[in-house]
Amino acid sequence: MRFTAASSFFERASEAFRSNSAYSRLLVVFAVSGGGGVVVYADAGSNHAIASEPQQPVPSKKKVVVLGTGWAGTSFVKNLDSSLYDVQIISPRNYFAFTPLLPSVTCGGVDARSVVEPIRKIMQKKGGNIRFWEAECFKIDHVNKKVLCRSTDEKNLVQNGEFSVDYDYLIIAMGARANTFNTPGVTENCHFLKEVEDAQKIRRSVMDCFERANLPNLSDEEKKKNLHFIIVGGGPTGVEFAAELHDFVSEDIAKLYPRVQDFVKISVIEAGEHILTMFDKRITQFAEEKFQRDGIDVKTGFKVIKVSDKAITMTHKDTGEVDVPYGMAVWSTGIGTRPIIMDFMKDVGQGGRRVLATDEWLRVRQCDDVYALGDCATISQRKVMDDISVIFKIADKDNSGTLSIKEIQDVLGDICQRYPQVELYLKSKQMKRFVDLLNESHGNVKKESIELDIEKFKQALADVDNQVKNLPATAQVASQQGTYLARCFNIMKEMDENPEGPLRMRGSGRHRFQPFRYKHLGQFAPLGGEQTAAQLPGDWISIGYGSQWLWYSVYASKQVSWRTRLAVVSDWSRKFVFGRDSSCI
Amino acid sequence: MRFTAASSFFERASEAFRSNSAYSRLLVVFAVSGGGGVVVYADAGSNHAIASEPQQPVPSKKKVVVLGTGWAGTSFVKNLDSSLYDVQIISPRNYFAFTPLLPSVTCGGVDARSVVEPIRKIMQKKGGNIRFWEAECFKIDHVNKKVLCRSTDEKNLVQNGEFSVDYDYLIIAMGARANTFNTPGVTENCHFLKEVEDAQKIRRSVMDCFERANLPNLSDEEKKKNLHFIIVGGGPTGVEFAAELHDFVSEDIAKLYPRVQDFVKISVIEAGEHILTMFDKRITQFAEEKFQRDGIDVKTGFKVIKVSDKAITMTHKDTGEVDVPYGMAVWSTGIGTRPIIMDFMKDVGQGGRRVLATDEWLRVRQCDDVYALGDCATISQRKVMDDISVIFKIADKDNSGTLSIKEIQDVLGDICQRYPQVELYLKSKQMKRFVDLLNESHGNVKKESIELDIEKFKQALADVDNQVKNLPATAQVASQQGTYLARCFNIMKEMDENPEGPLRMRGSGRHRFQPFRYKHLGQFAPLGGEQTAAQLPGDWISIGYGSQWLWYSVYASKQVSWRTRLAVVSDWSRKFVFGRDSSCI
Fold this sequence. Notes:
Chain A is α/β, with parallel strands linked by helices. Chain A is built from 20 helices and 25 strands. Chains A, B: It comes from Zostera marina. Chains A, B: InterPro entries: EF-hand-dom_pair, EF_Hand_1_Ca_BS, EF_hand_dom, FAD/NAD-bd_sf, FAD/NAD-binding_dom, NDH-2, NDH2-like_C.
């Protein structure tokens, strides 16, 4: 009875706090749109300060430090109940960028400013309990639980702008950098397409190529050289950029540079046999055929071995080495590890890996209270075979040395939660129950009556671990991980008492949280000319103008704020009416 | 009779051409908005080619080379009948920038891309008879009638991208650069505000200052230092930037950086006694009072003598030297001469001057077929006193050695055209006729009956040359000069036969064209907080919210294209609804 009373007091207090928070948010919004800002805001601020500092002393909040303002970090912060923690965000970029639209930024279809949202605006919406430092973290000291940072801009700062931040929980969401595979000359001569600045540079560079090719006294050879655009890497980013560039050239630039339009060539270099290999074969084929019709040269089976300022050297198993002169090159062959993550991996005994390994709860292995998500981490799913004897022991409640189907059914829920590959395997074989699995591995099994020993149990589960696959390094994964982790942090206290996770196989009791599960919502591959290929859940494929409109609506709805949503939509409309902008800025 | 017939044939032909031209423009517009561009455009292009190449061989067109794509160059090109000449434009910027909105770009109120229009779009609208080279002209060889140019980007080019272009007529419209008065450290440590790139850099720099000041472990002193924004120069640009920055800070940034908002300081340093001295005293006073209310520190009478990376050293006649630490400084003290203009001035015997001197028809003195307009040139108005004896001789038709009022009235129109200072003088003294001038200088004169000798004539006109004033270096002047010069070029052939200009005082016959006359349409000084001071023709002063709306409508209507007009208006609306963007890109 006392517990209920206390709980209802808490509820009432928190409700009051929440409504107060909403009230002050209202005031802030009013201040933003009203224009006569500061005074009104000051009121809202002090209201809020009163609301968040109750009269009884509260235990000091745990410090949560978030490294990075990309998809993972931002979605974590957006979904976190920031009143529970002392949150600090550290990133060299004070904004979140909607990266899937970067290829559109390269050709002026969408404006750079339309795809970014200041992280402080996002913090402001959460009530101001969060601090942000614009700095680069250069060392994670997990022993002393602190991170060392350096301002990106040294002017007027003491100690070169270096400082350290203590944490109780660390969220590493720093993303990745472009992977050059140590190919000589790439960093010096190629553009990447990971950051907003990259997209802006590519834009200027494309226009420079056209202006150069257009100068008087150039031979046709030189014009061709300047207007050869090479994209290395046939993944979604490279392909989308090639398509955007082709549209830009044929729809807008050709009219403005009629003297040189015939010299333009776009090439996509791919080391594998096909482009867009992560998509369904039908999409790959459609893309390759469309590119051929558009005159985009897709060179598969070519590996780039060197890049100079004038030519790209590549090799093919049949033809050997060739030098290809070019005007501009974009390198988009996947992601590599940031130096600080490499150092940290060495520190925690993960040296030699490509990205940080975490468990299914996004916790870095061998490292307490450090979480990693997004492109800088991967979940190393525990294998059933590694735990098979423990699982057997837990399931064998009567210690008979054999398992009845009843006993298996009792723990199957926990097993599927802990080892999602089991569920995936059942699904992929279109089996509904575990007994079907036994049927498959042992011939016709009379259900409920069978008793399994450990060998037979092992045999039944032998192939399930093949279902374990690394998640792709996409915005979708990062964003879902951020949301998941924020939820865990929001309910951490409750879960300490009433854990919701599966049975611990090694150890006793239950895991606190459900492990992270990725839900694939589909993927787009815009192919230019208002045509997009979409691979939706359930292997549903859609290609053409319809999915371009789906693309427009999904990307508009996924925008992080109403400002960017309006900006992106108005950029698109402007593109339709006036074409893309071709000024060199 | 034959002449009439020929003329009507010409009229019909030109009418046919014009309608054909309109037809192809219609097609081009359709192609732009339709999206499926190239083929349609090719049709339009060939139509046009047929229209502009009549069956009879035409004499080769004169080559007109335009240096610069600023206000003067662009307004010249826009208004030129490009079918009459072989036009080439040379500029390191392939776009026209609406410079009066640059201060708004610095604080994210308007987007950089919204204030620029690609020069090729402007060319395209004119039918494509114009060529553009993106290059820097580094030498004007007026003896051999050619200009030497260098591409701004050397990659993949022979001979370092250098080339030469021949001209028959050269239009120099290269503008000016910022004037540092050789103050040490300015170029290295200060921002300027002349180009779009400058505005973008200032924007990033403002945000960097806030991010730096916001870092942990900074003393209040250091925060203050980082958030001290200094504007050197109290002219319209500096004042408008100060006002924009103040609005940005108080309306948008203060909410996002609540920990540091109290440390912000904005100072305007002016060597003279007041800011905005080119405006009416009422505006100056209002601006100074408003800035004081806003907390903007206006320091008049201070001269900057040195800038280091941490402090600006300035001196005042009363207090002597002081060092003022700062976070960011913008240098806006007027315009200086570009090196190529200096070289050219030496070549044509104008060494030692600040800008190129032209005659009243914008022709560079001592230099045939070279015209200069905009900020790089100034009209050196011929003085009445220099020509007084010639004028007397021309007016004295009966060679009597004296002038009758009748004789003066006969040439007064030509005198006022050739020497606008005479008209200005009469206007400024509120005199309607020349005889009033005689009345003033000789007491009461009985009109029509008087005969003047040369001494009396000199005496009457003694003060008129004081009315000669250099035109301000504004967009308005440059734009009107471009329009004027284009008109001269358009009617050059007709004017060779039927000159419209005033009598030649030295030499015989008439000048071909009316000399350039500047028509002042008013000037704005936005002062922040949606208040603008406007000085309109006839000394009409308007200050406040009303003139801010006038500012909005004038600047929207003056945009060079519908695309930029829409972009600017939607940027303004976005600013009202969502505030300015504060991301560091």
